[in-house]
């Protein structure tokens, strides 16, 4: 965990949970493993605040606790998982994915669980039903059974999983510990839990309730009844959390399919998508290939809209296998040919493409050509680089040195003599894909951190203006509600002068740009998949074939503020911009 | 000793490709500027319905997180002068968790009591309980010696003194309200009139039944 990751974690914790949790969290991140007393002592915060913060972090799944290392009597030790905190950047993506797969119900379920960390099924169902009912037109309400269906489907496709249960630590030691009740509970890993995805049988029925007072007494009585019924739903103690890994696998699949679309065509991408869908649940997370599927199975599983004949399918499959990107591989001949999707190789190729596009966007196409050359040929001397890349010597030198200074390219020494004399050593340029990818990832984290800080700074600087505009909007809204005349409205609107209005508009534009660009670099590195391949472990930075939209290291003031308040974008921003 | 004209380097720069007598740009001895000019303009941001929807989602999420009980605000800093009205204003609930977690899943030491008598305060309560008791015993002795000599007025004073710690102790046992422990106001918030001690202690005969 690097300094950039730490800084970003701190900013994220501050935005979502406040300064106290941020202080506690960053301290715990830096120190590794700490017990409660040490944490209180070092952060110099009052004990109850520290306790509350740790509770919040444990509830959200970012902090884990375990019995002390020095034996059963040692105090409980806490540890923060940096990755889980960084997942917070991607929450909108998860919610959007759930929406696209399972509709509004799925979206709300995932949003609720993400907000609360862990929830029981009955609690989730009732909250989501209420929210949906609130948004429905008068007279309709959402039945619990629909929400339960959506929930079950999410669990079946492994997007939600049970939270690991905690077992008392005393059970692992000898019977001597039974006299004192265990002060510490030991959580077990979520993946090894055998009932991870088993739905509990709950006795829940009813409809969503509106949160409006005009529904009258019926609401009150049913609300009371709902509260007392909560404990009788039968799933006490079974908490559900979002399975981030599964979402990441989904993003990975999407990236592969969109890559195939760009490289080949729509039909091939449908074939690949079908193959991935068929092996969704059966392929383990870190597998190098999906399950082998025969051509017959693929033919049967293709969506009915794609009416392609069997020999055409075979041709497409052959095309996919022969493609240099190696998305699909052939592993056997039974059943018309056994095919697998080469996940790791596809990811490696996609990562390489990302690196290349980053160099291209930043340094120009000639540097990109040199970079691609070095990726393919591994080690080259200065002279060879000039010859192969067909770039004049001076420019080649210049570009190589620029890339070297940015650490995208490395020099490798190969001595001819044991004394490593400089005049008798080869110096070769090389690119190491893995460290370079890591470097880019850290750049992205730094960028996101910078953008957040800039946004906070901007908001703070213009706080007065934002407050004023909010008040004006509130006045306008209340006037409109009470049916005022147009003159009064215009008078109120004129309370903001035109340059102020322009300034406000540009400010909002920038802030939203910062917010969007916060999510885009992450969209382009949607998942880093740890792969243990024989000798080394890889991080893969992914993007589609679209050029990577990372903003390099320093925030920009881009482009012209749109000073047209009538545009629909401005309207939406006006509605949604909040004071931070 | 190659490269004497360019500073002492450990290897011959011809290998990397700098020819003899070639003009290199002057070496840079200051840190790079913070905002260097960009040769290539960055690619524009993603726009489109998806991106806007996710932007809206993000803002809503952040707004919602602020209203949830997980957002912990630091304790407000103390004002410059302690005001009298502060005692009667609602103090912030600094040691109550506003949400109810399932304590079976948390380590015991994190448990924050809902009754406001957290672990820090619980050793204080027995201490305070002990002190009035000790005082009571002493005062009882004093009274016994004094009641033979003194008038009723002085014994009333001592009873009043004894009543106050008793009241506080009784209040502490009934309602875990630290305000009365810490601030000995002249007028207690819930006035507890225990008539037993009042009637019993002023009598000469201590063997009578206490009402």
Automatic annotation (TrEMBL), chain A:
Family in the record: Belongs to the eukaryotic RPC3/POLR3C RNA polymerase subunit family.
Keyword Nucleus: yes
Principal location: nucleus
Pfam family, one: RNA_pol_Rpc82
Name recorded for this polypeptide: DNA-directed RNA polymerase III subunit RPC3
PANTHER family recorded: DNA-DIRECTED RNA POLYMERASE III SUBUNIT RPC3 (PTHR12949:SF0), RNA POLYMERASE III DNA DIRECTED -RELATED (PTHR12949)
Known function: DNA-dependent RNA polymerase catalyzes the transcription of DNA into RNA using the four ribonucleoside triphosphates as substrates. Specific core component of RNA polymerase III which synthesizes small RNAs, such as 5S rRNA and tRNAs.
Signal peptide: none
Cellular compartments per GO CC: RNA polymerase III complex
Top-level taxon in the UniProt lineage: Eukaryota
DNA-directed RNA polymerase III subunit RPC3 winged-helix domain span: 355-431
Keyword Transcription annotated: yes
Chain segments carrying region Disordered: 162-190, 206-230
Ranges of biased composition (kind: Polar residues): 162-189
Boundaries of every RNA polymerase III Rpc82 C -terminal domain copy: 150-350
Subunit structure: Component of the RNA polymerase III (Pol III) complex consisting of 17 subunits.
Cellular compartment(s): Nucleus
Single GO MF descriptor: single-stranded DNA binding
Residues annotated as domain RNA polymerase III subunit RPC82-related helix-turn-helix: 8-67
UniProt keyword annotations, A-Z: DNA-directed RNA polymerase, Nucleus, Transcription
Annotated InterPro entries: POLR3C_WHD, RNA_pol_III_RPC82-rel_HTH, RNA_pol_III_Rpc82_C, RPC3, WH-like_DNA-bd_sf
GO biological processes: DNA-templated transcription
Species in which this protein is naturally found: Triplophysa rosa
From TrEMBL, chain B:
Compositional bias segments (type: Basic and acidic residues): 141-166
GO term, biological process aspect, one: transcription by RNA polymerase III
Keyword Ubl conjugation: no
GO CC, alphabetical: RNA polymerase III complex
Region listing for Disordered, in residue ranges: 141-211
InterPro entries per the UniProt record, alphabetical: RNA_pol_III_Rpc31 (IPR024661)
Keywords assigned by UniProt, alphabetized: DNA-directed RNA polymerase, Nucleus, Transcription
Domain of life: Eukaryota
Comp. bias regions, Acidic residues: 167-186, 194-211
Subcellular location: Nucleus
Any Pfam family the entry gives: RNA_pol_3_Rpc31
Signal peptide: none
Stretches assigned to coiled coil: none
Family per record: Belongs to the eukaryotic RPC7 RNA polymerase subunit family.
Record-given protein name: DNA-directed RNA polymerase III subunit RPC7-like
């Amino acid at each position: 965990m690097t300094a950039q990751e730490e800084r970003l974690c701190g900013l994220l914790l501050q935005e979502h949970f406040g300064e106290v949790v941020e202080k506690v969290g960053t301290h715990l991140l830096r120190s590794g493993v700490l017990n409660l007393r040490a944490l209180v002592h070092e952060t110099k915060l009052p004990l109850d605040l520290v306790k509350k913060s740790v509770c919040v972090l444990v509830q959200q799944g970012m902090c884990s606790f375990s019995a002390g290392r020095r034996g059963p009597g040692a105090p409980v030790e806490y540890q923060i998982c940096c990755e889980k905190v960084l997942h917070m950047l991607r929450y909108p993506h998860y919610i959007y994915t759930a929406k696209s797969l399972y509709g509004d119900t799925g979206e709300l379920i995932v949003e609720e669980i993400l907000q609360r960390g862990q929830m029981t099924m009955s609690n989730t169902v009732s909250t989501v039903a209420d929210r949906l009912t609130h948004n429905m037109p008068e007279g309709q309400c959402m039945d619990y059974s629909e929400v339960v269906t959506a929930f079950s489907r999410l669990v079946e496709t492994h997007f939600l999983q049970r939270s690991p249960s905690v077992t008392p630590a005393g059970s692992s030691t000898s019977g001597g510990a039974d006299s004192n009740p265990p002060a510490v509970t030991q959580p077990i890993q979520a993946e090894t839990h055998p009932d991870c995805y088993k739905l509990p049988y709950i006795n829940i029925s009813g409809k969503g309730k509106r949160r409006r007072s005009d529904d009258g007494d019926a609401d009150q009585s049913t609300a009371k009844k709902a509260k007392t019924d909560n404990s009788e739903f039968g799933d006490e103690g079974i908490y559900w959390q979002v399975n981030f890994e599964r979402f990441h696998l989904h993003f990975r699949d999407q990236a592969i399919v969109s890559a195939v679309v760009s490289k080949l065509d729509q039909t091939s991408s449908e074939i690949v998508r079908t193959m991935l869908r068929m092996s969704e649940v059966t392929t383990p997370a870190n597998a190098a290939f999906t399950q082998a599927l025969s051509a017959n199975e693929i033919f049967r599983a293709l969506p009915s809209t794609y009416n392609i004949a069997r020999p055409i399918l075979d041709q497409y499959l052959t095309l996919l296998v022969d493609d240099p990107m190696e998305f699909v591989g052939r592993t056997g001949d039974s059943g018309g040919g056994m095919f697998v999707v080469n996940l790791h190789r596809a990811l490696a190729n996609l990562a390489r493409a990302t690196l290349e596009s980053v160099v291209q966007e930043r340094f120009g196409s000639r540097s990109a050509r040199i970079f691609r050359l070095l990726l393919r040929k591994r080690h080259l001397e200065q002279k060879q680089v000039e010859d192969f890349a067909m770039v004049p010597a001076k420019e080649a030198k210049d570009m190589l040195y620029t890339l070297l200074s940015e650490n995208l390219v490395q020099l490798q020494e190969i001595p001819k003599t044991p004394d490593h004399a400089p005049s008798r050593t080869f110096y070769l340029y090389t690119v190491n894909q893995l460290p370079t990818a890591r470097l880019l990832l850290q750049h992205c984290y730094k960028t996101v951190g910078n953008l957040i800080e800039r946004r906070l700074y901007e908001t703070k600087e213009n706080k007065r203006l934002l407050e004023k505009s909010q008040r004006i909007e509130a006045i306008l809204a209340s006037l409109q509600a009470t049916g005022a005349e147009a003159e009064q409205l215009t008078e109120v609107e004129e309370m903001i002068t035109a340059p102020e209005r322009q300034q406000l508009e540009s400010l909002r534009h920038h802030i939203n740009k910062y917010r969007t660009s916060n999510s885009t670099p992450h969209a382009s590195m949607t998942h880093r998949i740890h792969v243990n391949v024989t000798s080394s472990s890889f991080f893969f930075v992914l993007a589609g074939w679209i050029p990577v939209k990372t903003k390099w290291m320093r925030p920009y003031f881009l482009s012209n503020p749109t000073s047209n308040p009538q545009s629909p974008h401005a309207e939406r921003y006006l509605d949604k911009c909040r004071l931070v | 000793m190659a490269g004497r004209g360019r500073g002492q380097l450990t290897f011959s720069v011809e290998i990397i490709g700098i020819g003899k007598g070639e003009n290199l740009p002057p070496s840079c001895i200051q840190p790079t500027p913070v905002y260097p000019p960009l040769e290539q303009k960055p690619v524009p941001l993603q726009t489109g319905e998806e991106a806007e929807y996710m932007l809206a989602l993000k803002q809503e999420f952040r707004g919602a997180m602020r209203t949830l009980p997980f957002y912990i605000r630091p304790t407000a800093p103390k004002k410059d002068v302690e005001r009298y009205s502060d005692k009667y204003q609602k103090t912030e609930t600094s040691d109550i968790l506003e949400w109810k977690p399932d304590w079976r899943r948390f380590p015991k030491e994190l448990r924050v009591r809902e009754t406001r008598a957290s672990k820090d305060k619980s050793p204080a309560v027995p201490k305070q309980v002990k002190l009035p008791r000790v005082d009571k015993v002493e005062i009882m002795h004093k009274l016994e010696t004094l009641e033979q000599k003194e008038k009723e007025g002085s014994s009333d004073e001592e009873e009043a003194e004894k009543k106050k710690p008793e009241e506080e102790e009784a209040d502490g046992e009934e309602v875990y309200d630290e305000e009365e422990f810490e601030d000995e106001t002249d007028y207690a918030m819930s006035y507890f009139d225990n008539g037993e001690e009042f009637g019993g202690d002023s009598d000469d005969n201590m063997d009578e039944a206490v009402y």
